[in-house]
């Protein structure tokens, strides 16, 4: 039966494919040679450029020489989406599109100890700087999971080998921070860094690494994958706040609680628990459900409107909506209302942030204005993936 979710998915698919999966990104401001020159390689000037381009309701990228390009993380999410469509429809065209994207990703790996991928732009946060192309654990894990998805469909071992290779990147190239102080009793648990060139502790990134190791373990049964995933998971679960939340990271400037990163943590933790049968599973289940209840009660209004932070609605961001849909669908076995809530979140996004005439979602709403720039990865690829999953539930 045709429904409005499928209508949006089909129009969004045409929009994304119109540019051969090229587009702008909220964080691509430093792809401008002129603006990059004006930063004089200074941290806060780089941040200023990125935030100026991100927050401007007018797309200044063509004026400053920022070209549309392919984002590896977006490509991985697109491949995952096409594979969901293939499983639902059995149409060969979707499997062919996924293979085309995965071939591109193979050709554009960053290298290192295994297949890995970075951003298509230089990115400066308050804590660390990531030059264009330096692989991140977030990009790599989302993409490697797409290779595992196609392996489950085709049983072609080369796809499993690529995902297994990404585990070598995680194990050999990422740095590790160990628990300190009172949490040191967590039996040598550790946090994987975001990239090979930083030493940060970001909880969603750490659990994404653990999730990939755990999932590959289900195919290869390698003890080192199991043990590393377990220790990584124990690190982040030991940092759950009393009410059930997690800060984004450990650094002082990362002590905030937001919607979509919390969703990442919960989905990864749920998937790790699904892949593994730990002897102390009850403990982790309590942590998981406490986190989910906090997420459910904190980040969405009754009408489906997403809250960006635990204490502030703004900016209203469709990444929060997309991750909300994905998170609730992942928790349908724990919550009988989960699918209903996912649909409510999707309905709000379509009614308030969808430009039907052009076939894409707006970026953000602030207290003062709506940013209508048509970014590819954020939020449109994310909403494409989330709504495709939701449509498959109908």
Defining traits:
about 400 residues; mainly alpha; three-stranded antiparallel β-sheet; two-stranded antiparallel sheet; 9 strands; about 55% helix; globular
* Principal-axes shape call: globular
**Given the helix and strand composition, which structural class is it?**
mainly alpha
Question: How many strands appear in the DSSP assignment?
Answer: 9
Total count of helical runs of at least 4 residues: 15
Instruction: Give the N-terminus to C-terminus distance in angstroms.
Output: 8 Å
What's the helical proportion of residues? 55-70%
Structure overview:
The termini are close together. A 3-stranded antiparallel beta sheet has the order 5-8-9. Strands 1-2 form a two-stranded antiparallel ribbon. The chain is 56% helix and 5% strand. It has 15 helices and 9 strands. The radius of gyration is 20 Å and the shape is globular. A hairpin with a 4-residue loop joins strand 6 and strand 7. The model has no long low-confidence stretch (mean pLDDT 93). Helix 5 (72-89) runs parallel beside helix 7 and helix 13 (318-330) packs parallel to helix 15. It has helices at residues 4-18, 33-38, 43-55, 61-64, 72-89, 92-107, 137-154, 157-173, 203-220, 223-237, 259-275, 281-298, 318-330, 338-353, 376-393, and strands at 123-124, 129-130, 176-178, 190-192, 316-317, 354-355, 360-361, 364-365, 370-371. With 394 residues, the chain is mainly alpha-helical.
Topology:
Elements: H1 4-18, H2 33-38, H3 43-55, H4 61-64, H5 72-89, H6 92-107, E1 123-124, E2 129-130, H7 137-154, H8 157-173, E3 176-178, E4 190-192, H9 203-220, H10 223-237, H11 259-275, H12 281-298, E5 316-317, H13 318-330, H14 338-353, E6 354-355, E7 360-361, E8 364-365, E9 370-371, H15 376-393
Helix pairs in contact: 1-15, 5-6, 5-7, 5-15, 6-7, 7-8, 7-9, 8-9, 9-10, 9-11, 11-12, 11-13, 13-14, 13-15
